[in-house]
Amino acid sequence: MVRKLEKESDGAIVTIEDVETYSKVPRVGDLLLEYQSTRKVLSLATKPSAADSRTWLAPLLGCLKLNSDVSVKSGKDFIGIGAAIRDSSGKVVAAISKPMVGNFPVELGEFLALREGLILAKSHNLVVNYVEVDALNTASMLNSVKPFLGDAMFIISDIKALFIEVGVISCKAVPRVSNKFAHSLANLPFSSGEDLLWRDVDPLVFSCFSAFSIK
Predict the structure, then answer these.
(1) 55/78 Cα distance (integer angstroms)
(2) Rg (CA), the chain
(3) Could you tell me which residue ranges the RNase H type-1 domain spans (predicted)?
């Protein structure tokens, strides 16, 4: 059973679902094995340039950018996932912060977080042009032209299909300093324990959360 609530936070509507909703994640047992078997055949191909070593850089006027991240903490039976879609003014067009049950490694969690961000864009009919993550392996695998073996990389296939559906033209790795907002969203489930959704809000709305970076 899913319990949904809505509350106002500085004029923004925040949707909350029970964390128990995520206790039935499909194919959770298969994700880790498939990731480990496929990672061996892929190598690093992209690194952030010196020009990327800055705070978040806004997309071009009329474009949207998706940043995503994962947070994994020892002793927890879930990971934190965060994703934010922002426009050229920095306004948060859509953002999520949610727990996902499972003991996933960080690198696999990066893929899960990105996929959730793309699903967010698709569900709200948003055209996202640019994607940024702070994991080199994630960007490398997604930009690789090497064929994938069998269905071992179904999660990457899902992401690439979503890239086409939502209009992504660029996916690159950036330093953590350029991805702080998404990282803060990924850390939030460890204090809130809830699934949160924001639409069309100013980043300053998030300043009410302690240790939250809106850069």
Answers:
(1) 28
(2) 16
(3) 67-187
β-pairing, 170-173 vs 65-71, is unpaired
In contact, 142 and 99? CB cutoff 8 Å: no
Round to whole Å and give the CA distance between 139 and 135.
7
- The answer on pLDDT for 21 being more than 70 is no
Contact 139, 171 (CB under 8 A): yes
101 pairs with which residues across the strands? 78
**What is the pLDDT at residue 2?**
38
Q: What's the topology of domain 4-48+60-202?
A: Nucleotidyltransferase; domain 5 (3.30.420)
Q: Which residues contact 80 (CB under 8 A, 6 or more apart)?
A: 70, 71, 72, 73, 97, 98, 99, 100, 186, 187, 188, 189, 190
How is residue 84 written in tokens? 């934010």
- Residue ranges covered by each domain of the chain: 4-48+60-202
80 in helix, strand or coil? strand
Question: Which two tokens mark 143?
Answer: 């930009």
Task: Name the helix (H) or strand (E) containing 32.
Answer: helix 28-39
Q: pLDDT confidence of 148, banded at 50, 70, 90?
A: low
Please tell me the pTM assigned to this model: 0.75
Tell me the percentage of the chain whose pLDDT exceeds 70. Answer: 69
Q: What is the amino acid identity at position 42?
A: L
- pLDDT band with cut points at 50, 70 and 90 for residue 54: low
List strand residue ranges (DSSP E) for 115-182, in order: 130-133, 170-173
More confident site: 152 or 184:
184
